Amino acid sequence: PKAAMAFSGKYEFEADENYDAFVQQIGLPSDKAEMGRNCKIVTEVVQNGNDFTWTQHFPGGRTTTNTFTVGKEADMETMGGKKFKATVKMEDGKLVADFPNYRHTSEICGGKLVEISTSSGVVYKRTSKKIA
């Protein structure tokens, strides 16, 4: 099935909810948690049909890139830099991935990139506005 929404674009962090509770829940070390707090992460998404390249640019020049095809297992990296394998699915126009200790969904909502991560009932929501 064709992806319901076009994800391609560059998005800059705008707001998040429940960050501290979430990073505590997934056991992110406090130095990494500090780095990510209110961090103006720019997320760059290149979508070509069901193929995605998902890059996060952190202030200071660090980047994380995950490349995946919807429905196929891919090598991924978590917020904390752990490597793992996941199969990203498309459900109702949302990208859904099961990370080792949380489930992550992404969707385009009103021109914004909305990402929701859930771990044992703790829900972390991050919204980024489109800048390109």
What is the CATH architecture annotation? Beta Barrel
Instruction: Give the uncertain stretches in residue-range form.
Output: none
* Helical coverage, percent range: 10-25%
The mean pLDDT is 90
The number of helical elements comes to: 2
The strand order across the widest sheet is 4-3-2-1-11-10-9-8-7
Series of H and E elements: EHHEEEEEEEEEE
Classify the secondary structure makeup into a structural class.
mainly beta
Q: What integer value in Å does the Rg equal?
A: 14 Å
What is the domain total for the residues? 1
- SS elements, strand count: 11
| Largest sheet composition | 9 strands, antiparallel
Q: Going by CATH, what is the homologous superfamily?
A: Calycin beta-barrel core domain
Q: What share of the residues does DSSP label as strand, in percent? A: over 45%
N- and C-termini, Cα separation: 26 Å
